[in-house]
Structures are given as structure tokens and as C-alpha cells.
Amino acid sequence: MASHIVGYPRMGPKRELKFALESFWDGKSTAEDLQKVSADLRSAIWKQMSEAGTKYIPSNTFAHYDQVLDTTAMLGAVPPRYGFTGGEIGLDVYFSMARGNASVPAMEMTKWFDTNYHYIVPELGPEVNFSYASHKAVNEYKEAKALGVDTVPVLVGPVSYLLLSKAAKGVEKSFDLLSLLPKILPVYKEVITELKAAGATWIQLDEPVLVMDLEGHKLQAFTGAYAELESTLSGLNVLVETYFADIPAEAYKTLTSLKGVTAYGFDLVRGTKTLDLVKAGFPEGKYLFAGVVDGRNIWANDFAASLSTLEALEGVVGKDKLVVSTSCSLLHTAVDLINETKLDDEIKSWMAFAAQKVVEVNALAKALAGHKDEALFSANAAALASRRSSPRVTNEGVQKAAAALKGSDHRRATNVSARLDAQQKKLNLPILPTTTIGSFPQTVELRRVRREYKAKKVSEEDYVKAMKEEIKKVVDLQEELDIDVLVHGEPERNDMVEYFGEQLSGFAFTANGWVQSYGSRCVKPPVIYGDVSRPKAMTVFWSTMAQSMTSRPMKGMLTGPVTILNWSFVRNDQPRHETCYQIALAIKDEVEDLEKGGIGVIQIDEAALREGLPLRKSEHAFYLDWAVHSFRITNCGVQDTTQIHTHMCYSHFNDIIHSIIDMDADVITIENSRSDEKLLSVFREGVKYGAGIGPGVYDIHSPRIPSSEEIADRVNKMLAVLEKNILWVNPDCGLKTRKYTEVKPALKNMVDAAKLIRSQLASAK
User: Fold this and answer.
1) Which of 172-186, 661-675, 711-725 has the lowest mean pLDDT?
2) pLDDT score recorded for residue 615
3) Could you tell me the CA-to-CA distances from 600 to 143, 435, 661 in Å, in that order?
4) Which DSSP category does 619 fall into?
5) From the annotation, which residues make up the binding site?
6) What is the CA 503 to chain-centroid distance, rounded?
7) Are 393 and 530 in contact (CB under 8 A)?
8) Which one of 308, 341, 689, 763 is most buried, counting C-beta atoms within 10 A?
9) For this structure, is 701 an active site residue?
10) Which ranges constitute the DSSP H helices of 83-135?
11) Is the pTM of this model over 0.70?
12) 686 pLDDT exceeds 80?
């Protein structure tokens, strides 16, 4: 019985790739240094999978930014502004597309399906000249082969690539991206031909859009594309991989009828209904890659349940045609549990990171072949039993409080228009008030102090003193820049979710459970293992300290319940919405304590609300109902004069704008600049929005500093569709990842732009 891994984390067990990338970007190391670190990481990954007994080991899943950008490079689909003139794409052009440079902005970045991973969105149109411009897939296959490992090269499939793209600026909105299939398929043919010549016997084409609700013409595009590729694919075993959800019946029918395809991969963790489709009919002689090991969470597999599923499938597809696999790439989970030396032993026994999931996949494959590791299976059963019966998982008081939420929609008593009037009388803000999203740059010194305090090398008194000095510096800078509503800069926080999870019951924390979000950006998701409550105030001390340093409004900064949920590894023994309601009640306690402490503006970030939207439209309404309700629970008890802000990050918002309005926040700040101001099109199309809104005026994920004229131009575009009395001026996101040398001039230009337009509006009266 064979085993397969869809993909593997790239960062390395100790974030080696992150540090190599940042060193290269800062000019402290060479391209050769970066490639050496990358090659060492790839070699270690392939060796690990090979030694575990994995038959189908992926290659070309290692990216310096993301796999979609790698495909853009492979196809030579570089937007003209980056000055690419042909040939092999180098790192300079590659990273300019991802991060921008001094003269041109980056391409748009958005979430990869419903994960916290991001990808760079291809910009395509009829004028793009596609060419085979990156030989990475072939080079990595050869690299693995030279190490004695025969791999399965992985490519983003041609139809998914186009459907994950957008029309470039200036291209008609009605342009059909699928019309480019005849132009990109010749490049795919070149790549596949080279892989065959290099000795590849299998190839994996990831077509995850097949789990979406696709119209008939999009499904037909798959049929046409694979018919066109059939002769090139001849002689290869071809796996088409899907993940993240059930595959709809029509898409299943299309997929299993594709020409030239040998095998189909399904997510059987998040796509349990797919099992019914397989059992009802599976093409004879084809392989089924059964994704029974969860690639998106850190809980140990239930061996007995998985084995039962696999045995049932074996009766449908045949013993020699069933392959045990992960549900998706392991990119979305942490790297190796062996590095968690401080994690509680009981909780640790309930977990499996990427390295352990490779072992799980192979253990299941061996058991199915009649070589069951009885000791491993017994330990697995004992760990699952321990988790089910552990008293630390359940808190009756929390469960009763969450159950009591039923029957109310938890709305504030007064409508938003009346609240904004009451808040303006108290805050006395100018037209187009300026603010930032929360965090300020985290310097090396700041990180050192925080790290040493955690390691008990710095006393609490010295730690508080250092944080107070940092907050004072941030407050003084904002006053010097003449920003209207201030933040304290969050120097005490390494991560917006981890910080809160550390202070809530029901959470556990890892030392090295890092997961890639985009580029070199890694997050360390908390683990929600039990019922959630707030033992004591979490932010009141820092926020009231910061407010005492200024007469200007100081925002209290919180992370919302949906974002805490979506950016954590969540318990899988109860519905997600029940866990979310528990978190909402904990945040509600904090909001009310901040208000009592004299904080009049409180921001409850819901950066990840859109990210959690299910991939199938039939499931949207239920998710949005409990997600929006959770947000309202947090602030339903505050006074009209307390202004509630929320913030949302990179995502497609237009399809959920009515749910955003239903959140009933007083002010929302939202990403806008990097997505070509797509958000504004909602308001152009007539959606009425009466609360305060701050579409981001510049992209903080790029080191580029926008001019005041550029920002003013953006604000004027906003004023064309939004009333001046509700518009705020702010960056796209927090400033934690930037340097002060970038932040100061950018914020100065932002404030100057706001003042310029205020004066223009005043003189136009």
C-alpha cells in the first residue's frame, strides 16, 4: 500500500528560510547564500519523507514566496512595470512582483482559499506574452534525483491558475481569463516534456478550484485543457489533486472523465461528502489518493477511524489503486513536534505536526497492507481517549454562558448614525481623521527585551519600564506627525492572536510551531484545546498607560473572536461556532473593562473574518450569521459615546459587504490599496454605508514610500463614492513588519495628504 504527501512546509524547523530571505532582502547575503539554505532545506525534507517510507514524494512545492507566483514566473507572465525582457526570471524580478521596489508597487496579495496563507495574484490580459521563463520545476526534480529521491513534480494546474488570476489594470472587466488557456498550455507542454525527459514517471497537477461552485463553462475548460495536454502527458502517471472542501457532484464527474489523468486526490477531512461520490462510482483502473490525514490542523489522526474509511475505499477502488495521503499540503501546519520541549506532555500527546503526519500517513498505509504497528496504534488510541476524558478540556461555567447566548442578536441599542453623532461631540475629530491600524515597528531591541522577559532574564519592573519607554516614543511620534487617533504601538505583543491566547484559558502554546503566512512572514498559531474564558484583564494596563501620555484619543487594541478562531489551531471535538462564542464572551469582558478604564475608542480586529468563509456558497449564510453575531457580542454592552472600530486584511470583501455592515461597528478600516481599490467598486455600485470607513491609502507590505500626492489621489477616489464625514485616512494594515525609516515618511505623507484635502474641501464650500 502506497503513501503520498501533497506538499510540505518550506520555512524549516527553526524558520531557516525566513531568516535567509530577510538577510537577502536587506543586502546582507547573496543569492547564492539564499539558494544554499533553500537546497539544504529541500534535501532534508526529501530525505525525511524517503526514510519514513513515503512512495510519492512531492517536489517543486518549495517556493521563495508562493507557488502561484512560481507559476507566474514559469509562464513568464510578468506585468510590464517590472521591466522583464525575456529569458529566465531572476530573483530581482521575482521579488519585485512580490514586494514591489523603490519605483513600482507589488502585485496584489490575497488569501489562498480559506486559509491564512497568501498568494500573489497574477495580472493577466490579452496582451500578455507567455514564455517558459522559469525552469524551477525541472531543476528541483533533477536536484532530488541526484540525491537518490525520485519525486512527483507538482504544478499549479492550468485552469486553477487562470481562475485564481485577475484581469490586469486597463483590461476590460468582462475579459474571460479562460480565453488564455490556448496561450499557457504550450508552456505547460514544454515543462511536462522536460520533466519526462528528466525521468519523471508521475506528475501532480493541483486543481483546487474544482471544490468551488463552478459554472458549466468553467468545468468545460478543464475538459478542453486536459484533452489538449493528453498527448504530452502520455507516458506519465498524472495525479490531479483537490483539497479544502467537498468536490461538487458535477465537478467530480468532470474530473473523473479528464483525458490523460491516472489518479485523483481528494480531501476526505474537510470533504467527507466526497466519500459518497467515490462509493457511488469510481472509474475503473484509476488511482484514488485518499486524503485522510489532516494537513490543516495539529491534532493526531484517529487511526481507527481512518483505517475504517480506507478499508471501505479499498473495496471500491481496489487494493493496488488506493494511496494514503494528506488532505492537503502540510504547508498549513507546524513543522515538527520534536522541537516542542516545553509543551505540556498530556497536550503534546494529542498532537501531530508535519513530521508526525508523514509518519501517520505511512503507518496507515502499512496497516492497510497488513503490517500494522500495534504499539503505534495503541499509543494513538490511548492519546485520543486521554483527550476525550481530560477535565482540562471542559469548563461547565463557560458552556452555560455560551448556551445562554441563544435568543438574542446582541445589537447595540442605538443606530450607528446617532452613535457617531454622540462620539463626535466627545472626540471632536476633524474631517478625514487620521489613524493607524495598531502596531508600530518591532525593533531588534524590543524583541530582545520581550524574549528575555519570557526567559525570566529581565525583571517585570525592567520589562514594564522598557515597554513604557517604547509606548512613549510611539505616542510622541504620532503627536509630532499630528495623527488624530493614536495607538500605543503594541510593543508588548509578538503576535495579535498569540498575545491574547496566552492570557485566555483553554489555549496552549508552542515554542516552534511556526506556519508560513506569506513570503518570510510566519505566524505561530495558538492551540485551542478546551473551553475558553478570560481569567483577568489583558490589555487595560497598557492602554490606560498610553492614554495617560496624551490628550488625544488612544485606541484600545483587541483581536476579535473570529480572527482568534481562524488564526488558531482549533479543537476539532466541537463545532467551530461554539468555540467562537466562548471567545466572544471573553473579549466582551475585556471591552467593558477598557471602557471603564477611560478608553473611548476600542478597535476589535476581525482581520480574518472573510478568510473563514466556506468555499461553497450553500454554507456562507450559516458561517456569516455566527461570525458576525460573535463580533456583536463583544461590544453590545458599551455606551453610545464609546467608538468601536474593526479592521480587515487582504481578502475579497465585495461579496460579504452586507455582512460587514451587519457587524454594526462604528468605524471599519479595510485593505484597499494593493487590490487596485477593488473595495471602492462596491460603493460605486450603490451600496450605502453609513458608518465610518477607512479604506487603506497605502500598502504596508511593501517597503515603498508613497508620496503625499499619490495618497491624496487615492483619498479623492474614495471621496467620489463615500461621504466626507464618514471617511477615515489610514494605512492598509499594522506597521509591525516595517522599519521606522519607512514608517515615518509614509505616515507624514499620509497626514499631509489628509490636511491638503481638508483645506481643499474647506475652500470649496
Assistant:
1) 661-675
2) 94
3) 59, 14, 21
4) G
5) 18, 116, 437-439, 490, 521-522, 567, 605, 647, 649, 658, 662, 671, 733
6) 23
7) yes
8) 689
9) yes
10) 91-99
11) yes
12) no
d(CA 627, CA 620): 10
> What sign has the CA pseudo-torsion 61, 67, 69, 75?
positive
pLDDT at 21 over 90: yes
Does residue 675 surpass a pLDDT of 70?
no
- Cβ count near 389 (within 10 Å): 9
Residue with cell 494593493: 674
pLDDT digit string (tens) for 687-724?
A: 788 899 999 999 887 888 999 999 999 999 999 888 99
Are 570 and 576 in contact by the 8 Å Cβ rule? The answer is: yes
| CA nearest neighbour of 644 among 594, 719, 696 | 594
HEC letters along 713-749: HHHHHHHCCCCCCCECECCCCCCCCCCHHHHHHHHHH
Distances in whole angstroms, Cα of residue 606 to Cα of each of 1, 2, 198, 603: 44, 42, 48, 9
Residue in 260, 213, 211 with CA at minimum distance from that of residue 237? 260
Q: What b/e string do you get for 325-345 counting C-beta neighbours within 10 Å, with b at 16 or more?
A: bbbbbbbbbbbbbebbeebee
pLDDT at 650: 56
* CA–CA distance, 145 with 638 (Å, rounded to integer): 63
Predicted confidence at residue 442, as pLDDT, reads 92
Three cell numbers, residue 514? 511556526
Dihedral sign computed on CA atoms, order 338, 342, 348, 352:
negative
**567 neighbors 512 (Cβ within 8 angstroms):** no
Q: In whole angstroms, how far apart are CA 567 and each of 238, 402, 519, 532?
A: 34, 21, 17, 15
Alpha carbon distance 379, 11 (integer Å):
30
208, 222 contact by CB (below 8 A): no
The residue assigned the cell 530582545 is 448
Q: Give the separation between CA 558 and CA 53, rounded to whole angstroms.
A: 46
DSSP 375-422: HHHHHHHHHHHHHHH-GGG--HHHHHHHHTTTT-----SS-HHHHHHH
Identify the band that residue 652 occupies on the pLDDT scale cut at 50, 70 and 90. low
Residue 388 to residues 294, 394, 486: CA-CA distances in angstroms? Answer: 19, 10, 46
Catalytic hit among 64, 118, 577, 701? 701
Long-range contacts of 334-337 (CB under 8 A, 24+ apart): 334/9, 334/298, 334/510, 334/512, 334/513, 334/514, 334/515, 334/525, 335/9, 335/11, 335/12, 335/13, 335/512, 335/513, 335/514, 336/13, 336/512
Question: Which one-letter DSSP state was computed for residue 489?
Answer: B
The string of pLDDT tens digits covering residues 591-603 is 999 999 999 999 9
> What is the residue-averaged pLDDT of the chain?
94
pLDDT in tens, 134-162: 999 999 999 999 999 999 999 999 999 99
Q: Read off the pLDDT of residues 322-373 as tens digits, 9 standing for 90 and up.
A: 999 999 999 999 999 999 998 999 999 999 999 999 999 999 999 999 999 9
User: Can you say which residues are annotated as belonging to the binding site for L-methionine?
Assistant: 437-439, 490, 605
- The dihedral built from the CA positions of residue 682, 686, 692 and 694, taken in this order, carries a sign that is positive
Of 482, 398, 451, 518, give the one whose Cα is nearest residue 108. 518
- DSSP run (H or E) holding 550: none
578 phi/psi in degrees, rounded to 5? -65, -40
Secondary structure element (H or E) that encloses residue 59, with its range:
strand 57-59
- Cα–Cα distance, 75 to 101 (Å, whole number): 22
Helical residues (DSSP H) of 597-702, grouped into ranges: 620-635, 657-662, 680-684
Q: Are the C-beta atoms of residues 435 and 555 closer than 8 Å to each other?
A: yes
d(CA 646, CA 653): 14
**Contact in structure between 707 and 684 (CB atoms under 8 Å):** no
